[in-house]
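Next comes the chain:
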Amino acid sequence: MSDQPEHIQCLILGSGPAGYTAAIYAARAGLKPVIYQGLQPGGQLTTTTEVENYPGYPKGTQGPEMMEDFKAQAERFATEVRWGMATKVDLTGPLHKVVIDDQTTVQTHALIIATGASAKWLGLESEQKFNGFGVSACAVCDGFFFKGQDVAIVGAGDTAAEEATYLAKLCRKVYMIVRRSEMRASKAMQERVLKTANIEILWNSETKEITGDKGVTGARILNLKTGQERNLVITGFFVAIGHQPNTGIFKDWLTLDETGYIKTVPGTSKTGRPGVFAVGDAQDKVYRQAVTAAGSGCMGALDAERYLAEKGIH
């Protein structure tokens, strides 16, 4: 590691909608932002094919193309976009130190954390094979493409129950695959699922394989009690077993909730540490949409700009 860390006025970690929007606002405010793209340049949207619910794209767009648009706009205002991932931080302040790829140390007065979250997966080879081709971790994002079709969703918590009822409004049939003989979802959410006629719950069940050719055509489900297998004929397979925020390196420095999301002052992007801001899916476990992530990225940049102005840092 170099003896003299590079000083960056506004450092942004992560390059999804939140990170790039923060960069656009920070750059326009003259903060000379630098983005480190992280493990997944472009964020979760790069694993999504069709995006039809982001304002300004009347004909829809491809997730990777959309993130290239975000990047190009950030770079147009002189944002410096770099490869690399933050592997260690020292947020003692007022100058916050960040180690990139275990070898380069940079320091900043204003740190915007936009490291996002990663969907938890079942770990099946076929699940990754069809990811974006019938397999999805976001029913709200992709449910529309399965209108009038038969789909399955895995999960037993509030998110799974909410997404199952959402899919039931669009799809002909929804199979809900639950590993145990009961759900973890709240009573109200369970009742909503049970009252929805076109949701069939497969209790004590797990997915052995997702089948198909160019896209999903079915799923092989094992009943853990009887040992019997059932082949579902479906075109969509949704995984709703939770998300893991990419916030591990901040756990000794910032207040995280029980699942690892960074806690911010309500209505702001401010964390408990001056000059450190959290935006996007690193702190949002409720909405998790590209448009809300972008909105919070804007908040992060404006909060950072005000913080630097108040401290007289240029």
Observations:
- The helical segments are 17-28, 63-76, 125-129, 139-142, 158-170, 187-194, 290-311.
